[in-house]
Amino acid sequence: MSSKALTLSVIIPVYNEEESLPELFQWICKVVDENQISAEVLFIDDGSSDTSWQVISELRKSDSRAKGIRFNRNYGKSAALHTGFQAALGEVVITMDADLQDSPEEIPDLIRMIKEEGFQLVSGWKKKRHDPIGKTIPSKFFNGVTRMVSGIKLHDFNCGLKAYHQDVVKNIELYGEMHRYIPLLAKWNGYYRIGEKVVQHRERKYGTTKFGLERFVNGFLDLISVSFVTRFRKNPMHFFGTFGTLSFLFGLIVAGYIIGDKLYNLYKNLPVRDVVDQPLFFLALVAILIGTQLFLAGFLAEMIIQINPRKNDYLVSEKIGLDA
């Protein structure tokens, strides 16, 4: 099947989901067959320790639409999605989790929103969730903060069920744990037509969740990181230089005032206090030093961005259905 004829790529990160993969693949195939959608299904095995890769290999033997990439170890969901994005051939790319909590029945509407309504990215919204309150309350708070910071009016940034135009997935870079902020990355790369669709959220049928409460702490740290990187990665001196200038000028003005005041008192034969006896003078020196260091950090960052770092070299041990 040529890339020109391929309408859809479904990307599924997999980590120890051996029980759910056959049922999920059959369900996806049923939906795309009923709607006459040409598709491929990319399973990205993120270093599973169970028989997930063997299951993917068997699915490939029974249906050529199943394709797989296997990592040598567990790198995380962002790595799996990035690798899947690079391998996808479909005009529309849909991501979903492997645990059967995302419904493939949403696929036709998601494709329609991308191809007919002109959205570049459509994010699922699990309006009615089958999760414990210890997961839903922090999630609402997390999404509220992300909406405020990003200006993107989505209710569920972390929903695994999303649809993209191919241009989006080929032009954004994921690393670390940035999968939570794909809408932000898309927006800051010039893809502003971002929509939302209420999707069905099903109860987990097999296994247990792979994420704990620590993901919310990591999520806020990643929000700070992605906000800084996307805004200042092309001009880091704008960030470091601004704060460096303010700090340097503050220290210079305070030090100048203290020294000037001493000289004035000497000239007028007034009581004089030694400069080094004044704590404010040392605060001024610290501010000058910090300002200088920020300037140096800005210059170094400007030099570093001229080099293209290799952020996404993941060790792939096997592939099926894909060129080596």
Could you walk me through the main structural features you see in this protein, from its secondary elements to its overall organization?
This protein is of the alpha/beta class. The protein folds into 2 domains: 226 residues, Alpha-Beta Complex (Spore Coat Polysaccharide Biosynthesis Protein SpsA, Chain A), CATH 3.90.550.10; 69 residues. It contains 10 helices and 8 strands. It has an 8-stranded mixed beta sheet, sandwiched between helices.
Short description:
The protein is of the alpha/beta class and about 325 residues long. It has helices at about 20-35, 50-60, 75-85, 105-115, 135-150, 165-170, 180-190, 215-230, 235-265, 280-305; strands spanning about 10-15, 40-45, 65-70, 90-95, 120-125, 160-165, 195-200, 315-320.
Rg, nearest Å: 26 Å
Ranges with pLDDT <50 over ≥5 residues? none
Q: Share of helix among residues?
A: 40-55%
The gross shape turns out to be elongated
List how many beta strands DSSP finds: 8
Q: Tally the helices.
A: 10
The secondary-structure element order is: EHEHEHEHEHEHHEHHHE
Which secondary-structure class do the elements indicate?
alpha/beta
Q: Which properties best describe this structure?
A:
324 residues; alpha/beta; Spore Coat Polysaccharide Biosynthesis Protein SpsA, Chain A; 2 domains; 8 strands; 47% helix
